[in-house]
Amino acid sequence: LSSSHATDRDRLRLHSSPQKIKVKMVKYSRALIIAAAAVPAYAFTASSYGRRATSLSSAPPIEQIDTRTGKPTGSSFLPQDTIDRAAVGSPIEKAKLAKDGTSAFVDVYEYAAKFRAGEMTWEEVEKADMNTRLKFVGMLHRDKRTPGQFMMRLKVPNGIVNADQMRFYADCVEKYGEEKGVIDITTRQNIQLRGVKIEDAPDIIDGLHARNQTSFQSALDSVRNMVGSPLAGIDDQEMVDTREFCNALNDLVSLDPVTETRGNPMWGNLPRKFNIAVSGSRDDYAHTHINDIGLVPCKHAETGVMGFNLVLGGYMSIKRVAESIPADMWIPADRESVVTLSEAILRIFRDESERKDRQKARLMWLVEKYGVAEFKQAVINEINSYDRGVTVSDAQPVPTEPFERRELMGVHKQPQEGKSRVGVLIPSGRLSATECREIADLADAYSGGEIRLTVEQNFILPNVDDGKVNALLKEKALNGARLKANPGFIEGNTVSCTGAQFCGLALVETKANAELIAKKLEDLVTVDRPIRIHWTGCPNSCGQVQVADIGIMGGPARKLNEETGKMMAVPGCKIFVGGRIGEDAHLALEPYKEGVPLAEESLIPELVEILKNEFGATDKTMRKRDKLKKLVGLA
User: Fold this and answer.
1) Which has the closest alpha carbon to 587: 624, 549, 618?
2) What is the pLDDT of residue 633?
3) Which of 331, 282, 340 minimizes the C-alpha distance to 308?
4) Which of 358, 367, 271, 269 lies closest to 320, judged by CA?
5) Distance CA 139, CA 108 (A)
6) CA–CA separation, 288 and 294 (whole Å)
7) I need a labelling partner for 598 at 20 to 30 A (CA). Which of 40, 165, 375, 488 fits?
8) Would you tell me how many other CB atoms lie within 10 Å of the CB of residue 132?
9) pLDDT tens-digit series, residues 277-329
């Protein structure tokens, strides 16, 4: 199913309010029999589902079917050994066993009804639900910054949305005010709605499902948003159109094949989050090198069939940052092969990965525990057990001809006759409700309502008639203070995490600083190519500073207090230099400089020096008119 377009029937069947599920789900086991012709039986008999192990386990009994939804629980798919390890595992593992997360959406509806009736307040919600379990619905409580309000993360496979959805996002958050009610574009081509309250969540969930989107299984220990090429289908250098694969993988992990409703319990109890990226060209706009599964397009050397080389294990965290490693596997670029390979890896990861130390519960640790060759064989064995006719070959040689990664900002011709794509800057990925509506209006007027999000937190309007490009560039929405179709090389490539405004882990505010500093650097220096500056508020590196030309990570710093003459602790940062993306991807793992105060008078000179020494920047020549404006305080 397309993530952005659905028939009326599709909208109805993807709507998964508790009432509709209870009507459909008399007995899940009967539905399994009915669906057997279309859905392989092993998909629902994995591990311990349907039977109770007889080991001398101290683990609590696992509920097989959630009576409120009629669906199996996420834990029911786990083998007994995994359940035993989870029972003595981390606090989150114990919480998932005690109260399954796959039915958390039912709680959202029930809590909301009580809130609206005045029978309950958010302070009375069980803490484990409020701060952990509701994440399975994509709702993350921002208790330190906005108590009682949530960030709601969606699933937007391949980053494709439409004008109607953008207006809906604006409607969802507008009531929370200009400061709290905002929309963020993420580094996974995704949407996050901020300020959401539980009493409003059911209407948002229903509205998303009516628009063929969901927030289910988008946070905590779930497979995150499927990243693909923002140029899918409109690129003359395209090797693979990533849209079908991203949609298919999204359905694998978040669409129940029996009830045909959002939320797939088979993947409802993973040991940690899991990221998948599908690249469509040599540009690797999807950043496969920092994903658990990275599918890199490559032809088979002998047959010429287009397929994917597989890379595994890339991730970023507070304890470790790891670049993905070659898995020596190649599959054809067809839906069955991509879904089957991903399912096999997910099954192994779900059942065998770490359940005690969450820092070691990412795929890379499991691959290292196996050994690359041994893990490859385990995946092949798993695939063969499915008997779908999918075969895995050794990795194929990659292209070696010179290739330069192309830009996404600005106007670029498409292979379609008379059409162009137009990339537009969203400073630090932050949008107001008004800006969301402006983008929707632009999409309706120029791109058939379609909007492509990028991992750089910007957007592309595809399929713009060449004869309308000039009119688009003159639109008021693109010539104001923020949205720009022709940004500078620095501001157009600035990326930021959420920062301290909403995130309790962030040591510094990032989004406002990122936008402001980028503008000031544009005024001070000239660079001859895009310079990617990434901001992240803490070592978890949600802003991916290690992939940037210049990465700024919040951290401690000290600065002389001129009044007291003493060094005082101030907001500061570490600076990373030299990360690369594309075919020649490289992570900058060691800080270039540490303990730099975040104040403009300290940080900007440091950045200007780095830009000059490492990237050939030169001082910007100021026109006499601009000098005069600056002198009189108008610039």
Assistant:
1) 549
2) 55
3) 331
4) 358
5) 10
6) 4
7) 488
8) 20
9) 999 999 999 999 999 999 999 999 999 999 999 999 999 999 999 999 999 99
List active site positions.
Answer: 153, 272-273, 537, 542-543
Q: How far apart are CA 66 and CA 519, in angstroms?
A: 53
Q: What local confidence, expressed as pLDDT, does residue 32 receive?
A: 38
Q: Return all residues near 65 (Cβ < 8 A) that are at least 6 apart.
A: 28, 71, 72, 73, 76
- Name the stretches of the chain with pLDDT < 70: 1-58, 60, 622-635
Number of H-type helices and E-type strands within the chain: 19, 23
For 224, the 3-state DSSP assignment is coil
State the CB neighbour count (10 A cutoff) for residue 206: 15
Q: Residues for the chain: how many in total?
A: 635
Predicted TM-score (pTM) of the model is 0.91
How far is CA 598 from each of CA 136, 292, 508, rounded to the nearest angstrom? 35, 33, 8
Which run of H or of E encompasses 346?
helix 335-352
The Cα-based distances of 605 to 132, 491, 520, 597 in angstroms read 42, 17, 11, 11
The SS3 assignment for 439 reads helix
Residue 445 region by backbone torsions, left for phi larger than 0, else alpha for psi between -120 and 50, else beta: alpha
d(Cα 330, Cα 292) in Å, to the nearest integer?
16
Of the CA atoms within 13 Å of residue 56, those in its CB half-sphere come to: 0
Q: Beta-carbon neighbour count of residue 188 at 10 Å? A: 25
Q: What is the pLDDT of residue 186?
A: 98
pLDDT digits (tens, 9 = 90+) for 425-438: 999 999 999 999 99
